[in-house]
Amino acid sequence: MPGVSFVEATKKFDDVVAVDHLTLDVEDGEFLVLVGPSGCGKSTALRMIAGLEEVTSGALLIGGEDVTDVEPQDRDLAMVFQSYALYPHKTVRQNIEFPLKSRKVPAAERAARAERAAGLLGLGDLLERRPAQLSGGQRQRVALARAIVREPRVFLMDEPLSNLDAKTRVQTRAELSELHETLGATFIYVTHDQVEAMTMGTRIAVLDGGRLQQVGTPDEVYDRPANLFVAGFIGSPPMNTVDAAVDRTPDGGVALRIGTGRIELPAALARALSGAADGEVVVGVRPEHLTIGQGPIEATVKIVESLGHERHVVAELAGTHEHQDEIVTGALVIVRQSAEDPAPRTGERVGLSARPDQVHLFDRR
Ligand code: ADP
């Protein structure tokens, strides 16, 4: 099973640069998720692999072979879309067999392969039904069966679960991951949903404005976001990011001034602050890494929201000051607590703290 490589691949629609010098290697057999907000270029990138969009500049390789100018039908891949595009008058069996029929595969082999694909997706009992007699989740599984029946080298999926209800989506997510393991094929999956990306991808590639922001395993991207965009996009609620001033201490250490508080960084972390960040930086802390108690950063509790198993507390940092004749209020941060933690009251003054090794530093936008 071959991988797919983008080599400085760019796609322009007149003035719009949809995909901007994308260089990315998708490994053979991996489940790579392309994720980013609407309009970031992820569908265009996928369609470039499929050959449905011409590459404006750069190249595209499948299995190490340059396919930039190869016709879509000769690329040996299958694409599954958000809309199932099943033939309404054909049965499930006929729908699944269709790609083989158009390739003139003999009837007996067609039937065997269709039944195997249907079996893999739990459609064995539904082969004689028509699409109208199926649920949304079942229809999407027929579309998947129709994609796998050809045994392509690469599967391309564009938001295939977004028409399903929440429960079916979670279930189908797990089935897709299982299918990926069974087939061992290369899966490239597009979604705007970072939860889907985090749960399904062996690696995820985060795009914004047509540019690759970061690629890594879900843990790498969550634990070490490359920039402010990734920090804000991955995680729900997203990472808190607030401006901070940097004080160099005489012993070579560093202290961050956040609102009225101060966090001293150990030498190892202080080194991560390059000389460039001598003035002001943006400090990022995940909501689950902020603690409410006697910490050094003063804040006022604004909202307390219980979700049953956990609690989200929105707090405003102290440190209101005047800037160019305007009153600038403190930044808002979200703290994620366990339901067992004592709940603060709205309006209460609290002290927030964060462990220095769970603090992220970013250059200003
Ligand atoms: P995403 O899938 O991340 O939502 P797209 O790849 O669909 O983003 O689009 C990326 C950018 O390219 C957007 O600005 C979009 O408007 C533009 N775009 C996509 N397809 C076309 C097209 N056929 N013609 C003109 N602009 C397009």
TrEMBL record:
What is the protein's species of origin?
Answer: Actinomarinicola tropica
Q: Which InterPro entries match?
A: AAA+_ATPase, ABC_transporter-like_ATP-bd, ABC_transporter-like_CS, ABC_transpr_MalK-like, ABC_transpr_MalK/UgpC-like, Mo/tungstate-bd_C_term_dom, NA-bd_OB-fold, OB_MalK-like
Gene Ontology cellular component list: ATP-binding cassette (ABC) transporter complex, substrate-binding subunit-containing
Domain named ABC transporter: residues? 4-234
UniProt keywords, alphabetically: ATP-binding, Nucleotide-binding, Transport
Q: Which SUPFAM superfamilies match?
A: MOP-like (SSF50331), P-loop containing nucleoside triphosphate hydrolases (SSF52540)
Protein name stated in the entry: ATP-binding cassette domain-containing protein
Name the Gene Ontology molecular function terms of this record. Answer: ABC-type transporter activity; ATP binding; ATP hydrolysis activity
Which example biological process does GO assign this protein? carbohydrate transport
Query: Which Pfam families does the annotation name?
Result: ABC_tran, OB_MalK
